Amino acid sequence: MNKAVLIPDSFKGTLSSIEICTIISDKIYKHFPHCHVVSIPVADGGEGSVDCFLSALGGEKIVETVSSPYFEDMESFYGLIDDTAVIEMAACAGLPLVEDRKNPSLTTTYGVGQLIMSAAKKGCKKIIVGLGGSSTNDGGCGAAAAVGVKFYDKKGNEFIPIGKTLIDIDRIDLSHKAKELDNIEIITMCDIDNPMYGTTGAAYIFGPQKGADEKMILELDKGLKNLCDVIERETGKDLKDVPGSGAAGAMGAGMIAFFNSVLQMGIETVLDTVKFDEIIEDADMIFTGEGRIDSQSLRGKVVIGVGKRAKNKNIPVTVIAGGAANNIDDAYDMGVTSIFTINRLPEDFEISRHKSKENLEATIDNILRLIKSVYIERGVQ
Asked: Which residues 6+ apart lie within 8 Å of 331 measured at CB?
């Protein structure tokens, strides 16, 4: 094996994608000392996305003081790779930042807009914004306000909307939006297809994990519907049924409406940015994986995104996962060659999660032993 490409997602709650790349590459060098290994750690737009991009492509981490989810000053960051910025909204609007103060009716994405402005002022021509792990439900209005978009209530008073005041929005003025954002391509990484509002929308599906009770969910949903109506009236953009508009407290909708962004599956953004098709041109094997491969994985997440690209070039793809569901056979028609799970005993996750490192090491070691035996049989090293 002369060249192997590693592009795993994280095993959530156990191993980061960077750690997985290190474990697999160490084992490859053990069995194939002269193999050229290319590691591309992946994140889905949530926490860790910036580090993954910087690990794969180089660049620097820019630190800025911005607004926290509760309008308090905090130190946040984004990645700068040549003239491209990578921002993860979790870095200043993430759920872990609110700790025991979970309340999506009060939190804001204002800090995300400040990071976008910082990147724009540095002359970036492209900004990638990762959605995921948010504590917010403001429809991206906070981020929009940070770049100059103005919101008014029925009395003509300007305000910065949060979850509970989305219902008060009567007019939106985009004419004061920062000119620095003109001609910048903004891509939003979004791996879910929930609509902006309704029973499968942002408030109903993701509100509870952010601290919303039944009463708050109803209020937040009404606010999002009002925001959607005002956006359509003011901009002509009908976001009601746009897949992904409900992502991250309807930040997906805000990115489309206020930043003219395109929503794109996270893995497609990663593959395009790292020039994956060029990297795998002469690869003998691709290793990918995630914590659990199931029907959701088949809708276009990391494993399938990688598989489809590899299939076009007839390169085998080995998937290593923490666990696997029964209904995943379609993966084999989408470029996946084989799927291995790392858990060696029928144990509860709370037990097995502490063995993830050693289980992954054992699994990849056995896979490579098999590959090596085939190479030896064919007289190839």
From this structure: 293, 297, 298, 303, 304, 307, 319, 339
